[in-house]
Amino acid sequence: MGYYRNDKFLKQFGNHLREIRLGKKLSQEELAFRSELDLTQIGRIERGVTNTSVSLANKIAKALKIPVKDLFDF
Amino acid sequence: MGYYRNDKFLKQFGNHLREIRLGKKLSQEELAFRSELDLTQIGRIERGVTNTSVSLANKIAKALKIPVKDLFDF
DNA sequence: ATTGAATAGTGCAAATTTGCCCTAATATAA
DNA sequence: TTATATTAGGGCAAATTTGCACTATTCAAT
To answer: Are A58 and B74 spatial neighbours (Cβ–Cβ below 8 Å)?
Structure first.
């Protein structure tokens, strides 16, 4: 399996998340704490090396205090 | 693990997807074919019993010819 | 009521993600 | 530079997702 992964999309998603996070002046560690994810996972998502789930995207959006759909608006 | 899953969100996501799919008069099978996912998986997502990935959400959105963010707009 | 289409659901192996441990590399201040 | 904070990344076990094969149930139309 694994052929359902779209690396370009994941990179864009990660870069977009990073921009939003930096725009809010948050460190990965602070975002990890607020979203109750591991710091490692936040990094992996931003680098586009993991294909995270819609649930975690939702948790991250909540931690950033933005609508989930904004995470996908790029 | 597994405590990062938000069932309410997954149900909403699935219901929203279903509404969009039906609005386009597509069967799960047709959507599965267009998105290159398995029919079983489309059903699981709509029922909210699986926490799918952002990549698959993207493939589904493409198959529906809508922006990904619209899948998260509910 | 019957037929056929569509959806629900079960079970399994393989692939992938995730948290947690850790160290390395890079950026930011002082 | 030196120290400090931040990010990158390796490695592993456990959890989860996914496709595939299959049967059961529900829906729609005639």
So the answer is: no
